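Re: that backbone. Tokens:
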């Protein structure tokens, strides 16, 4: 079953679950946000929404994840978690349409922890390579954040090449997988001091840009290439 039904005495709402981005608490009610950016008010609280998901969708309800007390998200849309800024960005798969939400640090930390199991899914066909040093950065399904090596960095992948122009949290590559479309990749800048450049053009902060094999990414003075896995690589971080 791909449709979700909310039914009251004088109203019935039916929606395809793939068209839902998130549910957000609104007092005793809930807001359902759709991929079209349409907001639908539901006259039930978020706990009742979660119960309906489980009752109607069964195992498919695992497509959704509760984030703190006020939010339920479509997990396929998860794009960026920034705990310090209390920011969560959801991106619609196969689209450049994104949604930015303010979420508590505690809720985001737990959400981030829940994604650790996904970090074991290493992409075997693509990689990011430092063109000068030939250091290889393996990528995984989900979020791959890059930045200068630091004891306080939140990055999954830290760059240790002496380039002081690279911020501690500089850019992100997110890998999405869709059964019909396969893997798709998006680049975004993470409010870096000196910007992130894709094929010599500076990208807009945190606006996800699709990238393809052969793309060149520059952070600070360091240039990387997004490429198919290099069987002759010399060093993997």
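Recovered sequence:
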């Amino acid at each position: 079953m791909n449709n979700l039904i909310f039914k009251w005495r004088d109203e019935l709402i039916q929606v395809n679950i793939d068209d839902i981005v998130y549910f957000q608490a609104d007092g005793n009610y809930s807001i359902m946000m759709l991929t079209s950016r349409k907001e639908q008010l539901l006259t039930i609280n978020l706990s009742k929404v979660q119960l309906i998901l489980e009752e109607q969708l069964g195992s498919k309800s695992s497509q959704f994840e509760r984030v703190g007390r006020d939010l339920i998200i479509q997990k396929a849309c998860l794009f960026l978690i920034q705990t310090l800024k209390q920011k969560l960005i959801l991106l619609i798969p196969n689209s450049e349409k994104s949604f930015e939400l303010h979420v508590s640090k505690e809720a985001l930390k737990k959400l981030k922890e829940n994604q650790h199991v996904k970090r074991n899914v290493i992409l075997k066909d693509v990689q990011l390579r430092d063109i000068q040093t030939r250091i290889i950065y393996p990528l995984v399904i989900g979020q791959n954040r890059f930045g200068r090596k630091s004891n306080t960095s939140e990055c999954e992948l830290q760059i240790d090449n002496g380039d002081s122009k690279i911020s501690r949290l500089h850019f992100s590559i997110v890998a999405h997988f869709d059964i019909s479309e396969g893997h798709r990749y998006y680049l975004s800048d993470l409010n870096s001091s000196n910007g992130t450049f894709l094929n010599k053009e500076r990208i807009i902060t945190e606006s996800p840009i699709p990238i393809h094999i052969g793309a060149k990414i520059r952070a600070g003075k360091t240039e990387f290439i997004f490429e198919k896995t290099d069987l002759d690589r010399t060093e993997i971080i």
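The mean pLDDT is 88. Helices lie at 46-57, 105-114.
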